[in-house]
Amino acid sequence: QVQLVESGGGSVQAGGSLRLSCATSGRAFSSYWVAWFRQAPGKEREFVATINWSGGQTYYGDSVKGRFTISRDNTKNTVYLQMSSLKPEDTAVYYCAADSVARGFPTISRLYAYWGQGTQVTVSS
C-alpha cells in the first residue's frame, strides 16, 4: 500500500549537517504520519521525528530537539529530515516509516506498518 525510499545518507564530520529524504507513494499517504527512526549497533531503535502529512503536526525525540527538523513537500510526496550540529552519537541507520497511527502516539515504532530499507549516517569525531 505504501512504499518508502530513503536517500541522503552519508559520512560527515561532527558539527556538520545532512538532509535525508523519504520519497513516499501510496493512496493513504496524505492522511498518514511519516516518521524517522534510527538504530545504532548495539542500541535499541530510537524515535527521531514524525510529521502528520495533512496537519503538519510534529514531534521530536529528546536527543534531537533543536538540531533536527522534519518537513514535507506535498508536490514531491517527500518527507525530509534536516540534521544539523551532528554528533558522533547520531551515527546510525535511519529508517523512514509511515502509518495512520489512529490510536496511540506517533512516536512509537510498533504503530508504524510501513518501513523503508534505511540509509546509513556516519558522523566522525
What topology does this entry show?
Blueprint lengths: L2 E5 L2 E4 L4 E8 L7 E7 L6 E7 L5 E3 L7 E6 L4 E6 L8 E8 L14 E2 L3 E6 L1
Parallel strand pairs: 2-11
Antiparallel strand pairs: 1-3, 3-8, 4-5, 4-9, 5-6, 7-8, 9-10, 9-11
What would you say this structure looks like, in words?
With about 120 residues, the protein is an all-beta fold. Helix content is about 0%, strand content about 50%. It is built from no helices and eleven strands. The strands form two sheets. Strands 2, 4, 5, 6, 9, 10 and 11 form a seven-stranded mixed beta sheet that branches. A four-stranded antiparallel beta sheet has the order 1-3-8-7, with no helix packed on it. It is globular. It starts with a strand and ends with a strand.
Helix content: under 10%
Helix and strand composition category: mainly beta
Cα Rg: 13 Å
Q: What spatial form do the alpha-carbon principal axes imply?
A: globular
Spans of at least 5 consecutive residues whose pLDDT stays below 50 are none
The total beta strand count reads 11
